[in-house]
UniProtKB/TrEMBL annotation:
InterPro entries: AMP-bd_C, AMP-bd_C_sf, AMP-binding_CS, AMP-dep_synth/lig_dom, ANL_N_sf. Residues 409-483 form the AMP-binding enzyme C-terminal domain. Keywords: Ligase. This is Class I adenylate-forming enzyme family protein. It holds the Pfam family AMP-binding.
Length: 502
């Protein structure tokens, strides 16, 4: 039987998917980074050797291994080595710091922790020592190595939990999201079959590989047999040289990426920013219709946007066949096997791409309804053509550059500041970030005026990750509240400040 992208998506495990692709096109490039290239066959061979090295260190099927690594060829190799062993891996975003990393290590009970050493001026190894992490090893350039002959057989099924991803949601602590190989393959298949890339396409991964989008995108590469350029650090215009040199045809990531590409294009009117580019694609944050139209008009490319979350890596995805208006105003359609139900305006989901729940059983029980549908907390509606339109969120979560930020976590920390009487943290629409973080503070009588620099310095000292720091500070005499339980009315704050520049 001839292998096709759709037949490959029936693979039981991620390792089986890689093995089948490597047999089909062993010498085709898969990952491109700087002057390096790794083929599909090369990934399989190198991952087996790294798996043997890890096995020699005591990693076994079911062993929990945390890794906090940047987007590099070595990171993908390590992840597939762990998949070959059937270990449980818990990726951690590289810019998370002591608070989030410590929580992830404790809750997952990680027995090993792979990190990059000193990266972008931050000493991850020192942080690991502070946290008392077990089995710490650096995996930036050098990876464990061994003879694959020592390895046990690869995992035979893909329905066991082998992935723990982390999302802040609406609580002060992250939530450990449980995924299987099959749920990640199902999510990546949705993206792949909607975009239908060709073997001569060249994609790009400019976001953290530790994000749920990492396996999502890699599954697409394995299904359709085309390569992607990896960016360890993404910034424009610096990244343009690599996009042009590798003739990238598909780029994107989230709303913030669209805005960055558009801004760079506007600095070069009359010149195509990336001559080979034909498509921007992404998700993870609200997509203003006007931004979509501006990108298509000014960059001369298509833009397809999707809807996903850590719990369900891909729910719907726009397709180039949808037409300009649907692409601008909807999040696309779900793939076969993804059930979407709208209950009292809330989007609920059931299907193979949906996570198995959370590390905390109480959170799992709360998240799923009696029929097994995941409560997303997002509000939306389905069009007659089956496209999804998102209209808002029930959850008090801010989505900045595709990452969930808990308002409560920032509020709890700011309540410790002596110059803060009460505080409400909200997300405000932002054309570049999707949303920006705004702290609205009610100060106690006699307190010295609070400045944005004060807030930033305090939250940094409390260990808050840089990407969660408020970009906007507003001081009010009194926060608006309802007349019953005196609950702060955040919607009134959003109405008041949505048009305010940071």
């Amino acid at each position: 039987m001839r292998e096709t992208p759709h037949s490959l998506s029936s693979s039981r495990t991620l390792w089986e998917l890689l093995d089948r692709r490597a047999r089909l096109t062993p010498d085709r490039p898969l990952f491109l980074q700087d002057d390096r290239s790794l083929t599909f066959g090369g990934l399989r061979a190198r991952a087996e050797r790294v798996a043997a090295g890890l096995y020699g260190r005591g990693v076994r099927p079911g062993t929990v291994v945390a890794w906090q690594l940047p987007t590099r060829v070595e990171t993908a190799v390590l992840s597939f080595a762990l998949a070959r062993l059937g270990a449980v891996q818990t990726p951690v975003i590289p810019f998370y710091r002591d608070r989030e990393v410590g929580f992830a290590l404790r809750e997952s009970r990680a027995e090993f922790f792979a990190l990059p050493g000193v990266w972008r001026g931050f000493d991850h190894t020192a942080m690991a020592r502070r946290l008392g992490a077990k089995g710490v090893f650096e995996a930036y350039d050098d990876l464990p190595d061994g003879d694959p002959a020592v390895l046990p057989p690869p995992p035979a099924e893909g329905t066991s939990v082998r992935w723990i991803y982390w999302t802040s949601g609406t609580t002060s602590d992250p939530k450990g999201v449980l995924h299987t190989d099959r749920s990640l393959i199902a999510g990546g298949s949705c993206l792949a079959h909607a975009l239908r890339p060709a073997p001569d396409d060249v994609g790009s991964i400019a976001f953290p590989y530790a994000h749920i989008g990492g396996p999502d995108y890699t599954v697409m590469l394995l299904l359709y047999g085309f390569p992607a350029v990896l960016f360890e650090q993404f910034a424009l215009p610096e990244a343009l040289e690599a996009y042009r040199a590798h003739r990238v045809t598909i780029a994107g990531g989230s709303t913030a990426f669209y805005s960055m590409f558009l801004a760079a294009q506007r600095e070069r009117p009359g010149e195509k920013l990336i001559p080979s580019l034909r498509l921007l694609a992404g998700g993870g944050a609200p997509k203003p219709p006007e931004l979509h139209r501006a990108v298509v008009r000014e960059m001369g490319v298509e833009l397809t946007h999707g809807y996903g979350m850590t719990e369900v890596p891909m729910i719907t995805m726009g397709s180039p066949d949808d037409g300009p208006e649907l692409l601008a105003t909807t999040e696309g359609r779900p793939p076969e096997g993804m059930e979407i139900r709208i209950v009292d305006g809330e989007v609920r989901l059931r299907g193979e791409a949906v996570c198995r729940g959370y590390l905390d059983p109480a959170q799992t029980a709360e998240a799923f309804d009696e029929e097994g549908f995941l409560r997303t907390g997002d509000l939306g509606r389905l069009t007659g053509s089956g496209h999804l339109v998102l209209t808002g969120r029930l959850k008090d979560v801010i989505i900045r550059k595709g990452e969930n930020i808990s308002a409560k976590e920032i509020e709890d920390l700011l309540h410790r500041h002596p110059a803060v009487g009460d505080v409400a943290v909200i997300g405000l629409p932002d054309p570049d970030r999707g949303e920006r973080v705004c702290a609205v503070v009610e100060q106690p009588p006699g307190a010295p005026p609070l400045t944005p620099a004060d807030v930033t310095a305090f939250l940094r000292a409390e260990g808050l990750s840089v990407h969660k720091l408020p970009e906007q500070l507003e001081i009010v005499d009194a926060l608006p509240r309802n007349e019953t339980l005196r609950k702060v009315l955040k919607y009134k704050l959003r109405e008041r400040y949505s048009g305010t520049a940071e």
